[in-house]
């Protein structure tokens, strides 16, 4: 029997699966970070740092203000439980999951096994990089740059050495052992991944089934393309077989969601057996473009009516919403998008543009203003400014002004009543 859900119910299930029904802790610890990662499965990494780098935002969205150095300690220390791999794009994953990605590593290896492939035609470079890592341990690309050997009187092409590291990372021969600033440090996989983990053999079908199971748990309710995209699994037939196996095992249940259609026909969807339907979602959160809630644009449009595009590569004069606009969640809706910039020189969070989404409701400006004030404080900024670009700017400016006044009054009251 196929159950039927409303679009609102599906949104709430999806947000609950992503951890947005949990109360934010008063003090964020490593335990909270691990709990979020258990829900997400992966944390996508991105270098753009206009407001905050993308991988810092999902924790803020779910946990509230936390010390960014906590993320660095949890994910980048030599004793971390996490490592980087292409589990969506470049992401942090649990070290214990390394064997789950052997099938992807093997796919890269087969793809580059031809005699005319880059790996084959640059075999000497690849071997030299591996020998250096074996002899010297973890190295930044810059550490290798100074020691690149001469060939016929000239330096090897530095791009070839850097490409060798990236290719070896994709095949699993090399792992990222940490970062200094934002620069990766590379090492042989055996220098990073414990032997007991590296030696585990997970057949391709079993790995894809497990990843499909995890994608379903993290999504709550999803279509087959949703489940395939979560970990960027291109083998549609393998995902379809995994879904069938999980249905037979009672872990997935077929559902129909009203409004989830294509060509006038309902889309097949499945609900994870642990998924809960909350009566309400009380969250307010600024989301990164690479948050699992919105990273698959087809799902974002279907679930949240969010027609989303990042405009980094759009010429400034042609941008509609701004350079790096961020969706804003209010309750179970994407209510707005804001283009944020941290101006460190003036200690100001600049709202460079703000736009309402179709799901917006009266009163959303207050919740968004409160979240923007929190975002500024999280980044150590003292002020929030709002430009005039966008149909939500007037309401946000008024709400932020009222929020600031209330905060001042609260502070004055605290001083007056202090013993």
Structural class by sheet pairing and helices: alpha+beta
Cα-based radius of gyration, to the nearest Å? 24 Å
Instruction: Give the terminus-to-terminus CA distance.
Output: 65 Å
- How large a portion of the residues is in β-strands, by DSSP E? 15-25%
Characterization of the model:
This protein has 17 helices and 18 strands. The chain is α+β, with helices and mostly antiparallel strands. The longest helix has 25 residues, at 393-417. Strand 15 (325-330) and strand 16 (333-343) form a beta hairpin. It starts with a strand and ends with a helix. The strands form six sheets. The protein has a five-stranded mixed sheet. A four-stranded mixed sheet has the order 1-10-13-9. A three-stranded antiparallel sheet has the order 2-4-3, with helices on one face. The protein is globular and about 65 Å long. Mean pLDDT is 92; it is low at 152-156 and 408-419. It has helices spanning 7-17, 30-40, 57-63, 68-76, 102-111, 118-121, 123-136, 141-145, 158-170, 189-192, 195-198, 204-219, 224-230, 236-248, 297-304, 364-378, 393-417; strands spanning 3-5, 43-44, 82-86, 90-94, 150-151, 154-155, 174-180, 183-188, 221-223, 252-257, 261-262, 265-266, 269-272, 284-286, 325-330, 333-343, 348-356, 383-386.
């Amino acid at each position: 029997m196929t159950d039927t859900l409303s679009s609102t119910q599906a949104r709430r299930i999806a947000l609950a699966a992503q951890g947005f029904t949990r109360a934010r802790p008063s003090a964020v610890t490593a335990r909270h970070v691990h709990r979020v990662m258990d829900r997400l499965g992966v944390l996508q990494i991105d270098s753009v740092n206009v407001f905050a780098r993308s991988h810092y935002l999902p924790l803020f969205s779910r946990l509230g203000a936390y010390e960014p150095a906590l993320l660095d300690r949890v994910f980048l220390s030599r004793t971390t439980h996490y490592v980087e791999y292409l589990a969506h794009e470049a992401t942090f994953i649990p070290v214990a999951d390394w064997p789950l990605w052997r099938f992807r590593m093997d796919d890269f290896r087969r793809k580059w096994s031809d005699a005319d492939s880059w790996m084959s035609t640059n075999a000497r470079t690849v071997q030299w990089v591996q020998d250096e890592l074996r002899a010297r341990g973890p190295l930044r690309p810059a550490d290798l740059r100074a020691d690149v050997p001469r060939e016929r009187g000239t330096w090897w092409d530095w791009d070839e050495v850097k490409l060798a590291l990236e290719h070896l990372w994709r095949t699993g021969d090399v792992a990222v052992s940490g970062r200094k600033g934002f620069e990766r440090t590379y090492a042989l996989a055996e220098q990073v991944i414990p032997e007991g983990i590296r030696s585990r053999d997970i057949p391709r079908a079993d790995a894809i089934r497990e990843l499909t199971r995890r994608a379903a748990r993290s999504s709550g309710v999803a279509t087959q393309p949703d489940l395939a995209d979560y970990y960027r699994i291109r083998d549609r037939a393998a995902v379809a077989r995994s879904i069938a196996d999980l249905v037979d095992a009672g872990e997935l249940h077929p559902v129909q969601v009203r409004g989830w259609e294509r060509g006038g026909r309902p889309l097949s969807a499945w609900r994870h057996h642990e998924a809960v339907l909350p009566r309400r979602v009380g969250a307010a959160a600024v989301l990164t473009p690479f948050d699992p809630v919105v990273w698959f644009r087809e799902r974002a449009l279907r679930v949240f009516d969010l027609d989303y595009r990042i405009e980094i590569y759009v010429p400034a004069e042609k941008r509609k919403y701004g350079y790096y606009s961020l969706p804003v969640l209010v309750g179970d809706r994407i209510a707005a998008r804001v283009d944020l910039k941290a101006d460190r020189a003036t200690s100001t969070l600049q709202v460079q543009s703000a736009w309402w989404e179709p799901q917006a409701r009266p009163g959303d400006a207050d919740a968004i203003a409160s979240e923007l004030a929190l975002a500024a404080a999280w980044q150590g900024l003292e002020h929030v400014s709002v430009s005039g670009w966008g149909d939500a700017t007037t309401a946000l400016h008024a709400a932020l002004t009222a929020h600031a006044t209330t905060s001042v009054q609260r502070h004055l009251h605290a001083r007056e009543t202090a013993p």
